[in-house]
Amino acid sequence: MKADCFDDALRELRERGFKLTPQRRAVLELFCSDGARHLTAQQAHDAIRGREPNVGLVTVYRCLELFTNVGILDKIKFNDGFDRYELHGGASGHHHHLVCTECGHVVEFGDCLIRSIERKLEKMSGFCIEGHWLELIGQCRECRERTEEDD
Amino acid sequence: MKADCFDDALRELRERGFKLTPQRRAVLELFCSDGARHLTAQQAHDAIRGREPNVGLVTVYRCLELFTNVGILDKIKFNDGFDRYELHGGASGHHHHLVCTECGHVVEFGDCLIRSIERKLEKMSGFCIEGHWLELIGQCRECRERTEEDD
DNA sequence: CGGTAAATGAAAACCACTTTCAATTATCAT
DNA sequence: ATGATAATTGAAAGTGGTTTTCATTTACCG
Ligand SMILES: [Mn+2]
Ligand SMILES: [Mn+2]
Ligand SMILES: [Zn+2]
Ligand SMILES: [Zn+2]
Description:
The structure is a homodimer. The first copy, chain A, is α+β, with helices and mostly antiparallel strands. Helices cover 46% and strands 23% of the residues of chain A. Chain A folds into two domains: 1-88, Orthogonal Bundle (Arc Repressor Mutant, subunit A), CATH 1.10.10.10; 91-151, Ferric-uptake regulator, C-terminal dimerisarion domain (Dna Ligase, domain 1, 2-Layer Sandwich). The first copy, chain A, has helices at 3-15, 22-32, 41-49, 57-70, 114-125, 141-150, and strands at 39-40, 73-77, 83-87, 95-100, 106-110, 128-139. In chain A, the strands form two sheets. Chain A has a three-stranded antiparallel sheet. In chain A, a hairpin with a 5-residue loop joins strand 2 (73-77) and strand 3. The longest helix of chain A has 14 residues, at 57-70. Chain A is globular, with a radius of gyration of 18 Å. The model of chain A has no long low-confidence stretch (mean pLDDT 88). Chain A binds chain B through residues 77, 79, 98, 100-101, 107, 109, 112-114, 116-118, 120-122, 124-141, 144, and chain B through 77, 79, 98, 100-101, 107, 109, 112-114, 116-118, 120-122, 124-141, 144. One manganese (II) ion binds next to strand 4 of chain B. The first copy, chain A, binds a DNA duplex through helix 4.
């Protein structure tokens, strides 16, 4: 439980005039805890229900949208039909995800070369590039070895 | 209307034992025509209705799925909630898309550096990478200039 | 404390997409 | 051609994540 991030987020919300409700605190606590990464709304709701039964799924959806607009969370898409969320910048700043098609295991990796591609493209296309989505999919080592055993 | 692509696709379908229905011909004709790029099922349906009123939206969905499985079309995601389709390989092979957030204008660009990122990541993570999905968003020159005028 | 506007939650709506199933039709053997 | 057969079609209903509605509750400020 990273206390810094929790307090910073509360301050940000207060400064912008949003009410600090128990529901919002619960969602914030979850995402500031260590185990919470790349959660869907449903997963976040399930995780919260244990301690705070009085938080509706709809409110979780609204918190996730609000926190994303305020810059506390990032919305991620693994292209699996679910919107997912993590702390803005994650553990180590802007990064992308490599997702296992078998077990869902996620590896994070830094920005690397996308920025230079962006600069080239801005010159070529005349666009002002605002952002990018990059997702890689494959099989993790464990799943690959398990699959080979089956043959 | 690229006749080659249309005939190749028909042959591919016939060889695999699929029936050559008027509906399938109509969808194929559309995607082999010059103006058709990155179409949603609804857009494809709208475009077809003029000439062939007897094609249901459901059948368009089924054609798009079939043609993707057979390798005639590629499914693309612009992260806007719609599945989009274009001729397999597009104009110039594997490529990615730079989409304007204002007007939807799309610029295509080649694979460039993603492959080398993939190779690095395979060594680092142990994954066997099967594919990637990259989308860039921004404002095209026209929309940027129009926005600046408004100030 | 009240007053007030924001926030909540249950239910219903939304919407792209998929499934169901009875009717139609392309294909092929006769 | 003709008929048998299984694939294909389309209207309608279903799916599932997300959003909206609206009556009720509540955090916040004076
Ligand atoms: Mn992450
Ligand atoms: Mn393209
Ligand atoms: Zn795995
Ligand atoms: Zn534009």
